[in-house]
């Protein structure tokens, strides 16, 4: 049987995974059984609070003042199929502190498209300029060497964003660089939006009950606030998406903000859709303890750092995080070559959330076995195992768009 240790050797053998039992999603935090949507909703806040305390950290409040300024607009972007708009979001406090983020928006301009349009909302690694090679996209993100090195050249990630398909299917796309809310590094605290809400001495040592993931998720909600003011967008029809660490973030954003009607979770792995109790691929222990300055130190709360050793003792697991999204739609994707993210486990969490979705009469997954690669399954709760590596590509987007169409039909 596999035992976790440092230096880290990941387990990729199903036969070595120690047996575990997931907490019953229909048991309230106080132990009483849940038998109706009313009982589930009465318990929801307490469950959300457990996830805040143990894993993702507390939710920031709203800033004293928020302003939106259009920095740039182009009417014939994406080969004439989209209006591209770049909006500066400025958050300020009465104490004089302020912080800015730049949102890049593509709105379908096709004559047949109905307006206002639904919108996919997400964060990108690097900066806004990597998702398209349009030279008018303002360069965002950070440049310092202390921040994790990804390719930040303009257009470096166009394969992840099939903009024309978004426009053809009449979906808007809104993105921000995650660095705009919290630069992705241990040193990111001080350059993040947190100084708006904390005094200088609250940073040393860093706040134990906060995390980068909760700040990124908060940023997604602030983007949605801004989208509510954009006339061509129907912000009551918003989906949130994210890949990898941003897939973990999308899940958390969907649990915290019920305005998101669909949550698209891509290759989110450990701390995302993969069960904490299943010791396969990356684990919480590996994430938090493997390196002195590993990302577990700031992606999650300090409680997580302490609790990661014995996930079986945690009162929660990730299928309950998915349940917190109910009755809204959720689409979980994995990739065959991304065993680090534990595809089988990602499916397992989705499959174990249904008791809550069933309370709402939603269509749930019925097979305990994940589907074969390249065979998407489900509607209100959907799953797709893509053939290939850790990435988010056109075929993922086609499934997310189908899930969104389904969710919007009600
Ligand atoms: C690392 C990390 C994962 C994370 C991924 C990413 O692989 O271990 O937890 O999801 O980076 O965000 O790219």
Descriptive report:
The chain is of the alpha/beta class and 410 residues long. It has one domain (23-409): Rossmann fold (3-Layer(aba) Sandwich). Helices cover 28% and strands 20% of the residues. The chain contains 13 helices and 10 strands. A 10-stranded mixed sheet has the order 1-2-3-5-4-6-7-8-10-9, sandwiched between helices. The termini are far apart. The structure holds alpha-D-glucopyranuronic acid.
Supply the CATH architecture: 3-Layer(aba) Sandwich
Give the strand content: 15-25%
| Structure annotation, total helices | 13
CATH class type: Alpha Beta
Mean pLDDT: 94
The bound ligands are: alpha-D-glucopyranuronic acid
Whole-number radius of gyration? 20 Å
Characterize the quaternary organization of these chains. single chain
Largest sheet: 10 strands, mixed
Number of strands: 10
Keywords:
410 residues, alpha/beta, Rossmann fold, binds alpha-D-glucopyranuronic acid
Short summary:
28% of the residues lie in helices and 20% in strands. It is an alpha/beta fold and 410 residues long.
């Amino acid at each position: 049987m596999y035992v976790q240790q440092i230096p880290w050797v990941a387990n990729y053998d199903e036969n070595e995974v120690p047996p575990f039992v997931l907490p019953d999603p229909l048991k309230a935090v106080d132990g009483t059984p849940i038998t109706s949507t009313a009982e589930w909703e009465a318990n929801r806040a307490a469950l959300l609070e457990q996830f805040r305390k143990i894993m993702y950290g507390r939710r920031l409040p709203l800033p004293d003042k928020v302003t939106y300024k259009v920095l740039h607009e182009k009417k014939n972007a994406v080969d004439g199929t989209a209006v591209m708009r770049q909006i500066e979001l400025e958050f300020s406090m009465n104490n004089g502190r302020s912080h800015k983020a730049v949102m890049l928006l593509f709105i379908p301009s096709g004559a047949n498209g109905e307006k206002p349009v639904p919108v996919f909302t997400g964060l990108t690694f690097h900066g806004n300029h990597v998702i398209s090679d349009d030279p008018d996209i303002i360069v965002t993100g950070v440049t310092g060497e202390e921040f994790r090195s990804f390719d930040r050249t303009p257009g470096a990630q166009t394969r992840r964003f099939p903009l024309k398909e978004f426009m053809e299917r009449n979906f808007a796309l809104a993105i921000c660089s995650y660095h705009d809310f919290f630069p992705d590094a241990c040193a990111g605290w001080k350059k993040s939006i947190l100084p708006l809400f904390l005094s200088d001495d609250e940073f040393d040592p860093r706040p134990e009950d906060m995390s980068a993931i909760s700040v990124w998720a908060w940023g997604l909600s602030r983007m949605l606030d801004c989208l509510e003011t954009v006339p061509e967008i129907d912000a009551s029809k918003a989906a949130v998406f994210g890949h990898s660490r941003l897939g973990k973030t999308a899940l958390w954003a969907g649990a915290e903000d019920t305005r998101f009607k669909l949550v698209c979770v891509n290759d989110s792995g450990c701390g995302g859709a993969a069960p904490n109790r299943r010791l396969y691929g990356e684990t919480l222990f590996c994430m938090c303890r493997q390196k002195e300055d590993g990302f577990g130190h700031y992606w999650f709360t300090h409680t997580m750092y302490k609790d990661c050793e014995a996930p079986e003792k945690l009162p929660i697991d990730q299928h309950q995080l998915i349940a917190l999204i109910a009755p809204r739609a959720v689409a979980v994707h994995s990739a065959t070559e991304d065993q680090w993210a534990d595809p089988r486990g990602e499916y397992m969490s989705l499959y174990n959330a249904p008791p809550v979705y069933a309370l709402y009469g939603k269509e749930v997954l019925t097979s305990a076995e994940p589907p074969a690669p390249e065979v998407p399954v489900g509607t209100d709760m959907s799953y797709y195992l893509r053939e290939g590596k850790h990435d988010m590509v056109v075929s993922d987007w086609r499934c997310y768009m189908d899930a969104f169409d389904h969710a919007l039909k009600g």
